Amino acid sequence: MYALVDGNNFYVSCERVFRPSLNGRPVIVLSNNDGCAIARSNEAKALGVKMGAPWFQIRELANTKGLVALSANFALYGDLSDRMMAIAASYAPRQEIYSIDESFLLFEGMPGAELVSIGRALRDQVLCWVGIPTCVGFAPTKTLAKLANHVAKNAERKPGSYPAEYAQVFNLGACSATEVAAVLMATEVGEVWGVGPRTSARLKAYGIHTAQDLTRVDSKMLRREFSVVLEKTALELQGVSCARLEDVPTDKKQIACTRSFGRPVLELAGLAEAVSSFAMRAAEKLRSQNSAAGTLQVFIHTSPFRTDDPQYSRSVTVPLSRPTSDTNILVSAALAGLRQIYRTGFKFAKAGVMLMDLVPETVQQAELDLICEFDGLQQPPEKRLLMKAIDGLNRRYGRGAVGVASAGTNAGSAPRGWTMLQERRTPAYTTCWEDIAIARA
Amino acid sequence: MNSHDVTAAPVLLSTASQVPVIGIGSAVCAGFPSPAEDLGAKRIDLNDVLIKHPLATYLMRVSGPSMREAGIDDGDFVVVDKSIKACHGHIVVAVVDGEFTIKRLYKRGGRIKLQAANPTYPDIVPHEELVIWGVARHCIKALPV
User: Is A354 on the interface with B (CB under 8 A)?
Assistant: First the structure.
C-alpha cells in the first residue's frame, strides 16, 4: 500500500509556524521577485486568489480584505520540509520524496484498518514537532494515493465535496468497490495526477469528465488518441500499479541556475557578477550529485514585458575540453561565454547558467588523475579538496560564504543590483543566527 | 535581435585562473600509528546534551527581563522542544496576542496561567484556549569575557 503525505498550503503553513499572528488571515507567498502567488492559505483561496495570480492584479486585496503577501523564504521552507520528510520516513520502510512538501511512503503487508491510525499518528507528530498540518492518502497505487490525498484535503477544506470522515487521513484501499466508485465519480478528471488542463479539456470532448469515466475507457483508445502515460494513469486508477517508488533520486541530466534580476542590469560588470554566482551555485549542485559537466551554456535576456525597450536575447554554448566540476573552470567558461554575447545599450532582466552533458565524476576521475600525471594540467587532487572545502564552508556558514571573487560580494553598503527582490521576506528563523525568532520575556 | 545557441570555441583548461592551494591534503606520516584511531572517539558535541529531539528543536532569543529570577535573561538563547507535552512548572513558549512569550506554565486545579519569574510582571490568564508552542529545555547565556 502507498501513502502520499502532503503539507497543506505548505509555504503558508511554514510562515505561520513562526508568525502565529497569520493564523486565520488570508496569506499568500509570492514567487521570486515578488511576481505571483505560489501558495495560498484557505482564507486567500476563499477570496478568489488563484494559483499563479500576478501580484499587481491582486495587490488591492491587501487594502480591502487584509490579504498578507510574503516573499518566498526558501531557507525556512527547506528546513521545515527536511524535518517533515524525516518524520514521515520513520513510519515506513521506504520513502520517495516527490517534492518539497510531498512524499510517497510504501507500506508492505500492513492491514488496512491499522493504516489509518498510522496515518493519524504521523499527521499528529508532524503537526506537533514541526507545526505543519498535513493530509495523508493511502491506496494500492501511487496515482490512487495521490487521489486519496486530494480527497483527504478537500473533505476537510470543502465540506460536502467528499464524506466528512475521509478528512485529513483517508485510506482508499480499505473502501468497498461501491465507495471507491463513488469517490472516483466525485473527482473531476483534471484532478487526477498527471492529467493537465489541456488533456482534461480533450478528455471532456470524449465525454470523459470524472476519474471514474477514465477507468472505463478502452485503454487502447487512450494509447492511440492520447499517450502511453495516460493509459498507465487509467490502469493505476483501476488499482494496477504501474509507477514504482523511486526512493533513489535520479541524477539530474542538466543543472540550471537562472534568475530574474531585482532591477535591470546594463553593465557587463553587473552581469559578470551574476553569471559568476550562478556558475558557482551550479557547480556546487553538480558536485553534490558527483557529476562533471562537459558543456556549459550562458544566456542573457532583456525583459519581454518592457516592450518599449530594445530587446536582446542571446545564449552561447561553451564546450569544455574535458568534463569538469571545478568552480574556477566553470566560472571562467561562463564569463568567457558572457563576454561573447554581451552587447551594450540593453537593459538586461535575466541571466542564467546551465550545465549539460553531465557524466559521473567517479568514472571521470581515474582517467583525469592519469592525465594529470602526464601533462600536469588542472584538477590535481588538492583542487578537488579545495572544492570540497568550499562546499563544506558554504554549507556551514551559509550560501555565498566562500566563492570566487568575480561573483562580487554582499558585504558593504551597496547591495548587488541583480539579487532577488524580496521586499516581504520573513527571517530565516531556523537557518541563520541573526534571524532567530524572539520570545518576549 | 533574437538568436540562440552561438557556439564558442572550447575554453582551454589552462586558461582557468589558478587558485593557490595551501596544505589542505592530509599528511602521510611514517612511524607508529596513533593509538586513538581505532577507538573512534569523537570530540564532545554540545548538541548531544542540548538537543534531545533534533527534528522538533528550535532556537529562540529571549527579549525582556520577566524571567530573570528563573535565570533567563534578556539576550539569552533558549532551546525549545516542540515534542514535549507541557506540564505544570515547565518553562514554555506560548502564543499570546500572536506573539511568542516565554513564561512558566501554571496548571493546577483546572486553572491555567502563565507566570513571570519577576515580581513586577503580573500573571497572564488566557481568555481563550492557551496555545503552547514548545517547551524550553535549556538556556544558553554568554558570560562576560
Answer: no
- Ranges of beta strands (E only) in chain B are 2-7, 57-63, 77-81, 91-96, 99-108, 111-115, 131-140
Measured CA to CA, the distance from residue A156 to residue A76 in angstroms comes to 26
- Crossing angle of helices A142-157 and A228-237, in 10° steps, is 70
Which three-class secondary structure state does DSSP give residue A83?
helix
Does B75 score more than 80 pLDDT? yes
Q: Does B4 touch chain A (CB under 8 A)?
A: yes
Distance from the A228 Cα atom to the nearest Cα atom in chain B, whole angstroms = 33
Place of cell 541583480: A418
A-chain residues near B131 (CB < 8 A)? 20
Mean pLDDT of B38-57: 85
A219 SS3 class? helix
* Phi (first) and psi of residue B107, to 5 degrees: -145, 90
Q: What angle do CA A362, A365, A368 make, to 5 degrees?
A: 160
Does residue B83 sit at the A interface (CB-CB below 8 Å)? Answer: yes
Helices then strands, counting H and E runs in chain A, come out as 16, 13
Q: How many CB atoms lie within 10 A of CB A416?
A: 16
Angle between helices A381-397 and A268-288 (to 10 degrees): 100
pLDDT at A184: 97
More confident residue, A148 or A245: A148
How many angstroms separate the CA of residue A140 from the nearest CA in chain B? 30
Give the cell for residue A262: 531585482
Provide the number of CB pairs (under 8 Å) joining chain A to chain B: 152
Q: Which residues pair with A69 in a beta bridge?
A: A28
B residues 33-62 closer than 8 Å to A (CB): 53, 55-56, 58-62
CA atoms of A291 and A326, how far apart (whole Å) = 11
> Is the CB of A91 inside 8 Å of chain B's CB atoms?
no
In terms of pTM, does the model score above 0.90? no
Q: What single DSSP character describes residue B142?
A: P
* Rounded Cα–Cα distance for residues B55 and A87 (Å): 8
Phi, psi of A334 (to 5 degrees): -65, -40
Q: How far is it, in rounded angstroms, from Cα A54 to Cα A51?
A: 9
Q: Residue A192 corresponds to which cell in the numbers above?
A: 487526477
Residues of B catalogued as catalytic: 66, 103
ipTM over 0.90: no
Residue type, A264: P
Q: What is the DSSP string of A132-165?
A: --EEEEEESSHHHHHHHHHHHHHHHHSTTSS-GG
Enumerate residues 112 to 131 of chain B having a beta carbon within 8 A of any beta carbon in chain A.
116, 131
Residue B5 touches chain A, beta carbons under 8 Å: yes
Q: Where are the alpha helices (DSSP H) in A307-417?
A: 327-341, 361-375, 381-397
